[in-house]
Amino acid sequence: MTDPHETIRWGHDALELEIAPDDRGTARLVRLGAPGEEGTAPRPAAPLPLVEVTTAGLGRHWSGRHLVDTVLGERLRHRAHRAARDGDQHLLTVELHEPGTGLTAEVRYHSSDGLPVLRSEVLLRNEGPRTLHLESVGSLVTGCLTRGGPAALDDAELLWAENEWFAECRWQRQPLRASSPERSGRYRTTSGRSTRVVAGQGVWSSCGRLPMGGLTDRRTGRTWLWQIEHNGGGWRWECGVRDDTAYAALHGPNAADHGWRHPLEPGAEFRTVPVALALSPDGGPDGAFAALTRHRRATRRPHPDHRRLPVVFNDYMNCLMGDPTTDKLLPLVDAAAEAGAEYFVIDAGWYADQGENWWAGVGAWEPSASRFPGPRGIHEVLDRIRERGMVPGLWLEPEAVGASSPLAQSLPAEAFFRRDGERVEEGGGRHHLDLRHPAARAHLDAVVDRLVGEWGVGYLKLDHNTDPGPGTSAHPGEAPAAGLLGHNRAQLDWLDGLLDRYPELVLENCASGGMRMDHALLSRMQLQSTSDQQDLLRYAPIAAAAPTAVTPEQGAVWAYPQPGDSLDEVAFTMASALLGRIHLSGRLTELSPQARELVHEAVAVHKSLRAELPHAVPAWPLGLPGWEDAWTALALRTPTATYLTVWRRPGGEADAVLPLPHLAGADARVEVLYPAGGKAVTAWRPGSGDLDLTLPTAPAAVLLRLTGAPSARS
């Protein structure tokens, strides 16, 4: 039988935790870090319990913006725990119980062998006689994030990423004290009311900000990064100070931010959204992003696309822009094949007659006869794609049904998002399917079975361009945010069903570019559209920062050369995609022979290195990209080489120094991979591990490969 006062020690060679129940049996996480990391540093206090829960009747001890210091969290007592192993996964379940209400909480920790990443979710079960009206439940709560007492808080900096349409993955940093300042003077105050809160809203999980955050020590480099692995906007994280150490609490939907409520009836269960926390003991944000990259790979659904990484041509961006026809597509198919594309995707507009406002009419996903007028209709284009050795793909917006679509009337009202009994309409004539309803799912399954099973389409770009607000109420009394959570989970189940039926089908995740950039969807779908940005100069910092949110082999970056572009600009846009997934587009048929050769060269270079991308981890020699930086750099470290893309935009000097400390002491060989005829000048300094680079003109971009034995410090 488990001793309720027993200290729990659990982990592996990359991560350890220690949970110590206090005298009353309240379990608290008192240590989380790398083995042997404690050294002589004093152990910080850990005032927070393992689980923080609020209900309509039981809130917090101390009011404020935070969702910690809860009455129920303090009352939950350690009842049992068990550790297990499943392959390379280490599992720990800690069971807590609150006898007054009958609430039981199972905290479920997962960690992959060798990875300093903790994944967590909480299962609540009502073993009492009365319904509990949940208003917030933390998926992971941990103090002890900073080490060394109050002085360490002065070196702590918060990390978060602004994420807007056309301007994704813009990482920011701010001293932790700026959001939770030291208040003590003559009298000691250890817990204030303020904390830094970042939250998402609606169906777009990453609209406004990525569902991620972090805390880094600017002196030691010790860094924590977290991600909320949820495919809806109902998420929140907070980070602040408690008893001379920083804490973080990661949540799904809650009452304070989303109006969420969930009645937990006697005998019922509720599961929180999963979250993950990654540690780099001394490697700064780069080290933590490397760990998170490996975690994403370890926890996603296996798929052959993750190894093959085919080049995709898509007819939309800076090309047909939603106006495809047979006459326009056939020359592009030939040009894409000549460039080396392996998939060809017909984007928006293929289902709408020319001159029609298709925005409010989507839903049936039948091809337009006026756009594809021949006897075989759209199949003439699909057949040409296959004849040229490529796999055909199509764009879909599966959750959207236009108000003027026949589907808006033929599907039952309950198959759509509703609030107060009214069907939600948003975005200028759009309804939103609720995938909990069998009719909504049956409709989408029939569409996919026709396009994939009958037509032979091998790629679906799944987009979503409207936000229907806080959620849906399927029945009276259901909070819209609770309905949204149900839909979000049904969406994941639907995606799993598609891939169970069609295991070779490639799915791209898109929502006005990167407005749904989250690990829940990317653990199912194979590619992520990183942006809708049309300016090649503005795309550079987005492309460079994309591996913070998505593995390199899943990050689709547009490469869209235009007839009016200079050769430097053609090389610039192509270089942006070489360390990710090439989404080739642009008016290839109108390019000059020299420009077309630069495109073909870039695709060939990408194919020569793409087998290494699924094993690479990212780093940023010039720091995380700034939106206005003249110089931007992204490095991918593989087992055999370091690949480095560097962009120079107009402004600034022609020279840059790129620190690569993992290669310090190595007699590294520097190769210019692309463009072969460029003007880049490089010089390697092995003693310092610095690469001197000159790009004499701007805009300019270059892809380099460095090989050589790294130092023992790597």
TrEMBL record:
<dbReference type="InterPro" id="IPR017853">
    <property type="entry name" value="GH"/>
</dbReference>
<dbReference type="Pfam" id="PF02065">
    <property type="entry name" value="Melibiase"/>
</dbReference>
<dbReference type="GO" id="GO:0016052">
    <property type="term" value="P:carbohydrate catabolic process"/>
</dbReference>
<keyword id="KW-0378">Hydrolase</keyword>
<dbReference type="InterPro" id="IPR038417">
    <property type="entry name" value="Alpga-gal_N_sf"/>
</dbReference>
<keyword id="KW-0326">Glycosidase</keyword>
<protein>
    <recommendedName>
        <fullName>Alpha-galactosidase</fullName>
    </recommendedName>
</protein>
<dbReference type="InterPro" id="IPR002252">
    <property type="entry name" value="Glyco_hydro_36"/>
</dbReference>
<dbReference type="GO" id="GO:0004557">
    <property type="term" value="F:alpha-galactosidase activity"/>
</dbReference>
<dbReference type="InterPro" id="IPR013785">
    <property type="entry name" value="Aldolase_TIM"/>
</dbReference>
<dbReference type="InterPro" id="IPR050985">
    <property type="entry name" value="Alpha-glycosidase_related"/>
</dbReference>
